[in-house]
Design a protein that fits this description.
Layout: E1 4-9, H1 15-18, H2 22-27, E2 30-34, H3 40-50, H4 53-63, E3 70-75, E4 78-85, E5 92-98, H5 107-122, E6 126-131, H6 134-141, E7 144-147
Parallel strand pairs: 5-6
Antiparallel strand pairs: 1-6, 1-7, 2-3, 3-4, 4-5
The protein binds coenzyme A (COA).
Length: 173
């Protein structure tokens, strides 16, 4: 299975995504912040350690946008989650990741809520997500699958596997 592209209507977000997620997280000692360049090393070290170098590079790109398109979750003065948009292509949301020990607390939901509303504020009507956990986005955002491809990422040094037209994965193109 390759990654899927999904689309989310930013003007029809579920009520719990539309709501401000920060008060509930603050009660658990977790803050969501728009990332600043001065924290780049700490953030990218976290992403490289927990996820991948490629995701750290994408986050760095988002951080260098004005305004920063990278949001982080902070717990006990440490980065425990991140999400960003407009990284490899404009209008794309992601990557998104939460520290394994901090999952299930609503951190991804909060990061997603804040990022998608920031995208809407920037002027987008829809966000595209190259996922990953397709069921998560369908369940949380009412996202719709629009494709089964990795076109945006085909210029990577190691190209993603592409499906054929029937949706079955073929190894080489
Ligand atoms: C997916 C991820 C970001 C969720 O983070 P989180 O902070 O635990 O998410 P939340 O607390 O907001 O939501 C947890 C809910 O999502 C569900 N969920 C988590 N991962 C899921 C998946 N892959 N598929 C379906 N549902 C999923 C959980 O079952 C839970 O459901 P519940 O609230 O009904 O019990 C996290 O598991 C992660 O970092 N995964 C690895 C990186 C990844 O896949 N990122 C997405 C890249 S596009």
């Amino acid at each position: 299975m390759t990654d899927m592209d999904l689309i989310v209507n930013l003007y029809d977000l579920p009520a719990d995504v539309e709501a401000d997620p920060r008060p509930a997280l603050a009660e658990k000692g977790i803050k969501i912040k728009r990332a600043l360049a001065a924290d780049k090393s700490d953030i990218c070290d976290f992403i490289r350690r927990e996820f991948s170098r490629g995701w750290a590079d994408e986050a760095e790109k988002a951080l260098m946008n004005f305004p920063s398109a990278l949001y982080i979750a902070v717990y006990e003065e440490k980065v425990v989650g991140f999400a960003c948009y407009d990284t490899s292509a404009l209008g794309y949301y992601g990557p998104l990741g939460v520290d394994k020990t901090m999952r299930g607390k609503g951190i991804a939901q909060a990061l997603t809520s804040i990022c998608l509303k920031a995208m809407r504020e920037k002027g987008y009507g829809y966000a595209i997500i190259n996922a990953g956990p397709v069921e998560y986005y369908i369940k949380r955002l009412n996202a719709k699958i629009i494709g089964d491809h990795n076109c945006v990422f085909e210029n990577l040094i190691v190209e993603p596997v592409k499906p054929d037209r029937t949706g079955e994965v073929i190894e080489t193109l």
